[in-house]
Structures are given as structure tokens and as C-alpha cells.
Amino acid sequence: MTRSRSVLTQNLKRKLIAKRDAFFTKISDQGIALTYDDVRLTTGYSAILPDNINVESKFSKNVGLKIPIVSAAMDTVTEAEMAIEIAKLGGIGVIHKNFSAQEQAAQVAKVKYHLNGLIEKPICFDENASIGEILAYKKEKGFAFHSFLIIDGNHCLVGILTKNDFDFCENHALKAKEIMTKNVISGNPGVGLREAYHIMRENRKKVLPLIDRDKRIAGLYTFSDVKRILFGDSKTFNVDKDGRLRVAAAVGVYDDALERVEKLISEKVDLVIVDTAHGDSKGVIETLKLLKKRYDIDVMAGNISEPESAERLCRAGADGLKVGQGPGSICTTRIIAGIGKPQVSAIYECAKVASKFGVPVCADGGLKFSGDIPIAIGAGAHSVMMGNMLAGTKESPGEFRFHQGVQYKVYRGMGSLGAMESNKGSRERYNQGKNDLVPEGMEGMVPYKGPLREVFYQYLGGLRRGMGYVGAENIEELRMIAQFVRITEAGKAESHPHNIMITREAPNY
Asked: Does the predicted model carry a pTM greater than 0.85?
């Protein structure tokens, strides 16, 4: 069921945008800023069912999202496992920078090599490499795949090693050329997904290397990935133009950024974020300009909470903005430093400016319930970044702990004392040296939530239902037509369950 095009005319959209602007202007003129608990969306005429709503969005100018959810660049939230799963669900993960540059690039590689349509630069080994050396490299890189192309001294394809070859090889001192399969079925450069699928199926082969006239390797297809892309559930996957899962990574400023970006780009990272606690700073702006001049890649910058900051970063070339200073559940910046604007007002004011430059905004932090997602997007965000709401999932890297018979996972802020003591990346994010640290975050635990897929079902369900109530059939409409009311403390209490003893917990509250 779809809405009649006459329901939201351009004239009506302009009126609704003006009405929302008037609401936030009136609030701002009183010197007040609002956050999620202060507001609710108003309902509007709806002609679409929640399950038919399109939730595709943008993370940056050139990096899209199937769902508007991003996992935070935190060491207890996003490493390769989280980034892989969230990309499969349609979002994107941001690999944190408490890794070394080499380790961070390896994490990105795990995501990019996890699912591939066409692998442009497949992993190759010289025919004289020993099986032990190949297995050691595979373990070091954390590769989950088992097929490797073998080349001679002229970089020409001479064979292939598969899982069977490794499984039946008892002597790891043997050279690749001694156990490899030499009769390799291959294709020409330019072979598409469907043709590759048919070639592999007809020849009962699980890999198809592409070679040019000189027998040089021009790419590689794997049967499982091609089949999944063509016929599986990959319609939900957030992938790049070559069928690889999308992934982002956080970098610092100046030399740190340059060192990391060189390695990250070599692993096909989709986007980098110049990620600091104060994005409207000389170091961030100069680094942003340098990266945009030197590399052909989207660069997001943050964090900010003021419209003037948004304008400076947009003019410096940012492809996306990260908004939020202090709203996170483990962040103490507002208490320790006394700065920061409540999140809904920050999103609205920054997005208002960013929209003039065509720059998407990601609302980072402060979310507690699924209903906060449509509020953030209704205020102008294109996506939301989650830390706490993802930290307790199976895929998060935090360690398990039991407390009073309940299972928890460790969750800490990147500005926490532990994170800054052990990691240079955290110290740099908060502009601090190694000694006399001033933490701007806490360390704690969150209840174990189970697999990410189950959690996302509830988060997206809440978003879709919120959009249905508003009458928005896609993310851009929600950004344009959402209307707000400010609620009192009594209204907040009324919004939650009250005057009842809860006998069965809901999975989304």
C-alpha cells in the first residue's frame, strides 16, 4: 500500500518544515536546548504500513545505508565481528582507533574479505612458499577463507590451494607447488557475477580466478559469495560496488591520520572519520583538508554540537558530520568540562546548516530506546550511532561478566580512565598526554542482549512504527515532515509504564 502523491505536496512539505523550524527557534530564543526525553513526535495522516516503509539512508555523501544505524568507534563496541554483522543487517560499523594502524587495517580487511563479489586483488603466494608459511600468514591476518592463488616468479597464475589441499597435507614443510591443483578453471577479465556463477556451477569449482592474456591475475570470484549475492539474503547487506561489505574506521589528526589512512585505503575502507571529542578544532579542520586533497575517499568529521561548527567543517570539505558532545551513557564530558548541548537541539541546528551543503549528519550518542531513533532522524539526522545499545550484544568485543547471577558485558567510554591509560588513541581523541589524565568517561557493564540480529529487529521495528505514525514513507520524508512537542516531567512519566507491576519483561523496553 502506498501513499497518494497528493498527500504530501511540495507546498505542504514547506509548511511542515516551517512549522518545525518555528518550534525549535522558539525554544532556542528562550535559551533552552532539548534532548530525547524532552520531546515527542506528533502523529500525522498515514497511508502506508510500517513494514512497507523504506529505511535506506546515507552515512556520508557517497556511502549509503540500507538501515540508518551505525555502530560506534569504541573498543567495547566495534571490531571486525560487529562490523561484519551490522553490514549484513544493512548498517555500517566504525572500527575504533585504539588499535595500532596495522591492526586497525587488518580489522578492516577482515570485513572487506568476509563477503566478496569480485575480489580485485586476491591473496596470492609464490609457488615456493611453504604450506607452514601460508598457514601462519592466514592465522596472523585472521582470514576465514581457505583458497589461495599460487603464482610463479613472473606473477603468472600456476595453481591454486584449497581447503582440501591444506586438510590432507601432513608435512607443512612442503612447498605450494608440490600440493597445489595445477589445472585451474579461469575466466577472462570483465566476467560478471552471473556468468561467473554459471562457469563455477558447470565446472563444480568453488573459486574462479580471472586472468589476462599474459596469465596475470585480474581478480577472483568465490562461489559461496556469488551465490549469496545473487540468490541469498544479500538484499539486506550494505555492500560497495564490488559486492564487499561496507566498513568505516576512525582516525586521529595529522600524522596519525596519514599513517592510518594509507593502510586503510589499501584494504578498501569505505570511509574514514576524523574522530575527536572536539571536531571544531584546528587539528581536525587541517587534517580534513589534507585528507580530501590527498585521497579520493569520503571523510567524516566530528564531534560537534553547534551550527557554526557544522558550517566550518562543511566548508573544509567534510562528507559527513558526527553530532554529539556528551550525550552518551558512559560520557562525563558535560559534567567534567561543563560543555555540550542536549542532543535533539544539537542535531536540529547542525543538520539545518549541513543540509545547505548536502552533507549527511550522524547523531552520535544519547539513545536509550528505539523511539529515540525516529526522534533523532525527525530532527534532521540521516543516521544514528549507537554505543550502549549495541555494547551488550553477542558481536561486541566486551568481555563477559556475571553479577548476581545475571550475564553482563563490559562497556567503557573511550574517554574513561582505563581506555586512556592503555591506549594512545583514546588520549589523542580527548587531547591529553600520557600523564595526569582527566577522564571524560566511565567504565561499567551492560546486560547481555543476545545476537545483534534479534536486537535490530526491535530497533528497526520501533523506527518503522514511528515513521508510520508520522506518515513518512522513507527517511528523507521523516527528516522533512516530523513535528515535535515539548513534554513536561509529568508527560515523561506518563510516557512510561506506570501504576502497574510488570510481570513479563518486554524485549524492547
From this structure: no
Q: What is the pLDDT of residues 130-181, one digit of tens each?
A: 999 999 998 888 787 888 999 999 989 999 998 889 999 999 999 999 999 9
- Mean pLDDT (the chain) is 92
Q: Is the Cα dihedral 439, 338, 385, 62 positive or negative?
A: negative
Is residue 303 predicted with pLDDT exceeding 80? yes
- CA distances in angstroms from 302 to 71, 202, 241, 285, 394, listed in the order given: 15, 51, 27, 10, 28
Question: Of these residues, 314, 331, 350, 362, which one is catalytic?
Answer: 331
Active site annotation includes 429: yes
CA 321 to chain centre: 14
Amino acid of residue 14:
R
Q: What's 485's DSSP letter?
A: E
Predicted local distance difference test score (pLDDT) of residue 477: 96
**331 carries an active-site annotation:** yes
Q: Is the pLDDT of residue 117 over 80?
A: no
Amino acid 7: pLDDT:
63
Q: Contact at 8 Å (CB) between 355 and 387?
A: no
C-alpha cell at 322: 558526527
Per residue in 29-51, is it b (16+ CB within 10 Å) or e — as a string? eeeebbbbbbbbbeeeebebebe
Q: Are 270 and 116 in contact, with CB atoms under 8 Å apart?
A: no
pLDDT digits (tens, 9 = 90+) for 305-344: 999 999 999 999 999 999 999 999 989 999 999 999 999 9
Q: Given phi > 0 = left and psi -120 to 50 = alpha, else beta, which region is 338?
A: left
Distances (CA, A) of 436 to 409, 418, 420, 433: 29, 13, 11, 8
Q: How far is it, in rounded angstroms, from Cα 376 to Cα 367?
A: 9
pLDDT at 233: 63
For residues 349 and 333, what is the distance between their CA atoms, to the nearest angstrom?
20
CA dihedral 292→293→296→301, nearest 10 degrees, is -10
Cα–Cα dist 284/317, whole Å: 11
Which of 312, 429, 464, 479 does the annotation list as catalytic? 429
pLDDT at 403 over 60: yes
Grid coordinates given for 242: 564490488
With contact defined as beta carbons under 8 Å apart, do 345 and 34 qualify? yes
- Angstrom distance (rounded) from CA 92 to CA 188: 33
| Higher-confidence position of 120 and 110 | 110
